[in-house]
Design a protein that fits this description.
The chain has about 300 residues and is an alpha/beta fold. Helices cover about 45% and strands about 15% of the residues. It folds into two domains: about 5-30 and about 160-275, Udp-n-acetylmuramoylalanyl-d-glutamate--2,6- Diaminopimelate Ligase, Chain: A, domain 1 (3-Layer(aba) Sandwich), CATH 3.40.1390; about 35-160, NIF3 (NGG1p interacting factor 3)-like (Udp-n-acetylmuramoylalanyl-d-glutamate--2,6- Diaminopimelate Ligase, Chain: A, domain 1). It has a five-stranded mixed sheet, with helices on both faces. Strands 5-7-8-9-6 form a five-stranded mixed sheet. It starts with a helix and ends in a 10-residue tail after the last strand.
């Protein structure tokens, strides 16, 4: 596997001064990972007794500007706040396979980024008589496992925890600019080389793309997850990137805009990573945060992987 030094050399391409400047820009963005927690959360870290689900939830939410958020999907999907934590699993989706691995680890607290019960609000009335839902809900109840969705809060960290996790996994943290968090100015590489690098770093077998594989890509618009066509198109119109790298798209919105932009003469490309691949590093970010802030509890990140296969 190629390394970042080979594919995206900082010092060689940008010069020592720019390298140091980039590092100073990202230093503030990452500083909150090493700062001691203050107030209630700081006192909590000194507790030697058992730690509950609710205490861990409150500790993380206290780090979010304006937190805890009130209008949010970040609620418990199973279990309750008073469960004493024996181990934590972070993941994108609390799939049945992830739940079984959690049980095998002796853990009882899953922190997932996305829904557990197949809709954004995790409403379950419409699933009351569904066998798949009942099996999953009963499995969680039988083993007294709490599931908390941490979606809005991790995205509302300053900087966004999912974005910082992705940048770290790609070894692009040094290019992060808080003033334009979606935009990265990378040493120019071909679209083909960029795709190969992303697949290696994010463990992706195949991606969807639009563009000339020989086109040089220097200005990157990075939008993990599902920002939506309007947001993606407005960002492309404003930033004029060489390539949009995103999690997922509405094919009849973003893809058609890029097709027309290329016909109009713009050298604009697209790389669609897949929603899970683009945001999985955010769950690894969460695991690292927990290992630092709650070192007495074993935390394990389990990749939920893509539910789809490609021929």
């Amino acid at each position: 596997m190629s390394t970042t030094k080979t594919l995206f050399p900082l010092a060689a391409d940008l010069g020592r001064r720019k390298f140091i400047y980039n590092l100073s820009k990202v230093a503030g963005a990452a500083a909150f990972l090493t700062l001691p927690l203050a107030g209630k959360a700081g006192t909590f870290l000194n507790i030697k007794d058992e730690i509950t689900v609710g205490q861990i939830m409150d500790m993380f939410m206290s780090q979010v500007p304006g937190g805890p958020l009130t209008d949010t999907v970040d609620t418990l999907k199973a279990g309750n706040r008073d469960i004493k934590v024996t181990g934590i699993v972070t993941t994108m989706f609390a799939t049945i396979d992830v739940i079984k691995q959690t049980i095998a680890l002796g853990a009882n607290f899953i922190i997932a980024h996305e829904p557990t019960f197949y809709n954004h609000q995790d409403e379950t009335d419409w699933l009351a008589h569904d066998d798949v839902y009942r099996y999953k809900a009963d499995l969680l109840k039988q083993h007294n496992i709490a599931v908390w969705r941490n979606h809005d809060h991790i995205h509302h960290l300053n900087p966004d925890g999912v974005r910082m996790g992705l940048l770290k996994q790609l070894n692009w943290s040094g290019y992060y600019n808080p003033a334009a968090s979606n935009v990265l100015m990378l040493p120019a590489r071909s679209l083909s080389s960029l795709i190969k690098y992303l697949k290696q770093k994010l463990f992706i077998d195949k991606v969807r793309y639009i563009g000339n594989l020989q086109q040089n890509c220097h200005k990157i618009l990075l939008m993990p997850g599902a920002a939506g066509g309007t947001s993606q198109i407005q960002a492309m119109s404003k930033e004029k990137p060489d390539v949009l790298i995103c999690g997922e798209i509405q094919e009849w919105e973003t893809a058609e805009y890029i097709r027309d932009a290329r016909a109009e003469g713009r050298k604009l490309s697209l790389i669609v990573l897949g929603h899970i691949a683009s945001e999985e590093p955010g769950s690894e970010f969460m695991a690292a945060w927990l290992k630092e802030k709650v070192p007495g509890i074993k935390t394990t990140h389990i990749r939920s992987n893509n539910s789809l296969s490609f021929l």
